[in-house]
Amino acid sequence: QLQLVESGGGLVQPGGSLRLSCAVSGVSGFTLDSYTVGWFRRAPGKEREGVSCISATGASTNYADSVKGRFTISRDNAKKTVYLQMNSLKPEDTAVYYCAASRDWGPTLRRYAYNDWGQGTQVTVSS
Predict the structure, then answer these.
(1) Which residues partner with 50 through β-bridges?
(2) Is 123:14 a contact under the CB 8 Å cutoff?
(3) What are the backbone angles phi and psi of residue 32, rounded to the nearest 5°?
(4) Which of 84, 89, 92, 91 is CA-nearest to residue 118?
(5) Tell me: the pLDDT tens digits for 23-67?
(6) pLDDT beyond 90 at 6
(7) Complete DSSP assignment for the chain
(8) How far apart (Å, rounded) are the C-alpha atoms in residues 101 and 35?
(9) Distance in angstroms between the alpha carbons of the first and the last residue of the chain
(10) Cα–Cα distance between 93 and 12 in angstroms, integer?
(11) pLDDT tens digit string along 71-125?
(12) How many beta carbons lie within 10 A of that of residue 51, not counting itself?
């Protein structure tokens, strides 16, 4: 079982930027390059939805249409950290953002593919 901790959320004005981080840890010998990692979000009154994901080596990425061109996912396996750079933020981006890891799937935004989840970080976009 992995532990994932999100950070970097906060309050930002429309058009602003935030960078979220997901620090991943595990038992002795754990290497992040064995896992696909994804970002998901849950807005008030809505189901959790996939935002972006990145393959184990970083060679492949996937983005929801709603964030394509504005968000960028990246990873640093040596630091065991995955990032989500969010630019041109909109009020509809307001949500709790979660990172999750998949040991068996490539870069998919399907929730069922992910085994371990963080507790989330709040992002609020408001003027």
Answers:
(1) 40
(2) no
(3) -70, -20
(4) 84
(5) 999 988 899 999 999 999 999 999 999 999 999 999 999 999 999
(6) yes
(7) --EEEEE--EEE-TT--EEEEEEEE-STT--GGG-EEEEEEE-TTS--EEEEEE-TTSS-EEE-TTTTTTEEEEEETTTTEEEEEE-S--GGG-EEEEEEEESS--S---GGG--EE---EEEEE--
(8) 6
(9) 40
(10) 11
(11) 999 999 999 999 999 999 999 999 999 999 999 888 999 999 999 999 999 999 9
(12) 25
How far apart CA 39 and CA 60 sit, in angstroms, is 14
Q: Which two tokens stand for residue 103?
A: 């040991």
Distance CA 26, CA 126 (A): 36
Measured CA to CA, the distance from residue 13 to residue 74 in angstroms comes to 23
Residue found under tokens 């840890």: 25
Strand partners, 99: 39
Q: Tell me the pLDDT band of 1, cut-offs 50, 70 and 90.
A: confident
